[in-house]
Amino acid sequence: MITIQRLLTALTGVLLCFATLGAQAQDRDITYNSHVAQIINENCVVCHREGGIGPMQFESYDQVRPWAPLIQMRVANREMPPYAYDQHIGIQELEGDWRLAQEEIDTIVEWVNQGSPLGATDIIPPAVDLPNTDAWNFTASLGEPDLIVPSVPMDIPANGNDLWSKHFVESGLEQDRCIKAVQVKPRGDAKAVVHHANSDVWVPNEEGEYEDYGQLTEYAMGKWGELVPDGVCRTLPAGSRVRWSIHMYPGGVGATARGQEVKDNVVEIGLWFHDEDYAETEQPYKQDLRSYGMREGYENGHLIVPPHGFTMTQGFHSFDHPVRLDSFQPHGHLRMNAASLEIFYPETGRTEQISQISNWSATWHHSHIYSSDAAPLLPTGAVLVIKQWYDNSADNPNNPDPDQWVYGGSRTGDEMSHAWIAVTHLDDEGYDRLLAERKERSERSVAGND
Questions:
Q1: What backbone torsions phi and psi does residue 230 show, to the nearest 5 degrees?
Q2: In what order do the strands lie in the sheet with 241-248?
Q3: What is the C-alpha separation between 346 and 350, in angstroms, rounded?
Q4: For the chain, which terminus, N or C, has the lower number of CB atoms within 10 Å?
């Protein structure tokens, strides 16, 4: 009994401590100039500015203040910035992670609760350094692309049915190169119109005929780009051709859709390469990007989402050698609303949660790029378990018509069930080495030596 009383006393003290800290946060005067402007400038203005894709501008207090209650709601619900990835489930160490820290969210929420004050006028918020709206996303860290592969120009009407363009473009490469980063960029006025822009690589065989070599990259609306980890190589071969497969939706999809005709739209692939001798000097492992399908949950071989109904699909994939998962990007259309990635280990019967996206949206496709120190390492025979959920009810804000039967297909109004996953293919030696390095870093961290 004495032990229980001591535990209760300790717990009460901890709760009182947290309550005191919360009260102190609420008692603090939070203003735009001193606290909020920097958060908005660093996380929101990149889209919400003149010429940006955001529907309103947040470049000054006068522009932000009328939208403060909406900003509070979207930020508190983690709907903005638009990076849907569940907190506290699976791997959280991601490259290009747009999510706000909880402290930043709390600051904005309390600022609005206090009436969204401007604050002292002699305090000047830090100026925001914004790239050009048409700039490449990796220019600041990697410079301009080493190679740009453009599509052919396309005219997209203001309305009508889905359109597709499939064509080849020469890469112009004279030697094999290892890719460091890649981004697909529609023109600014077509970002809401280009539904996806996939590209695969074709190379000549011994007879001089071109055949499919593999996926170069994938783009879907809102995607930031892909970073390839050090020590691996995703190859673009010499003499290769790039085969474009571009899906366009006239008028556009989502809040940024302009509903206007787009003339001579060109979609571009920007590629950043490692040094020419990288493959020879580093002896990197091979990385590839592939589509992994989910067919469990199909009805008689078909993906079907009934009117006002729900569907879940799942797929299972394994490898005959060790691998590392470098990124995970679920793909679907307007009824899809959630996805997850797990790993099942047959030898132990254990299932490990890797990623969960519970508020997925077709207007913001993200390739969730795992930090190389945290990316999942799979032994031979481990099983990827990929799941996606679909909501054809009126409660789904992206649903254009809950009365429709929805089937699997390529149109925007159809549905798809696959995920794009970048995989580094290891051997036993490389797998054991990476495990040992992680164990060593973990032990140093526990010992306080990092």
A1: -65, 150
A2: 163-170, 241-248, 194-204, 210-217
A3: 7
A4: N
Q: If pLDDT is split at 50, 70 and 90, which confidence band does 19 have?
A: very low
pLDDT band at 21 (very low <50, low <70, confident <90, very high): very low
Token pair listed for 209: 């005929």
> Quick one: tokens of 322?
């060790």
CA atoms within 13 A on the CB side of 6: 3
Q: Residue 323 has which token pair?
A: 């691998």
Residue 407 three-state SS: strand
Query: What is the per-residue pLDDT for 441?
Result: 86
Residues 62-85: tens digit of each pLDDT: 999 999 999 999 999 999 999 999
Which residues contact residue 90 at a Cβ distance below 8 angstroms, ignoring those fewer than 6 apart?
341, 352, 353, 354, 355, 356
Ranges for all domains in the chain classified under CATH 2.60.120.230: 134-283, 285-450
CATH number of 134-283: 2.60.120.230
CATH topology of domain 285-450: Jelly Rolls (2.60.120)
Mean predicted confidence (pLDDT) in 219-236: 93
Q: Is the pLDDT of residue 249 over 90?
A: no
pTM: 0.88
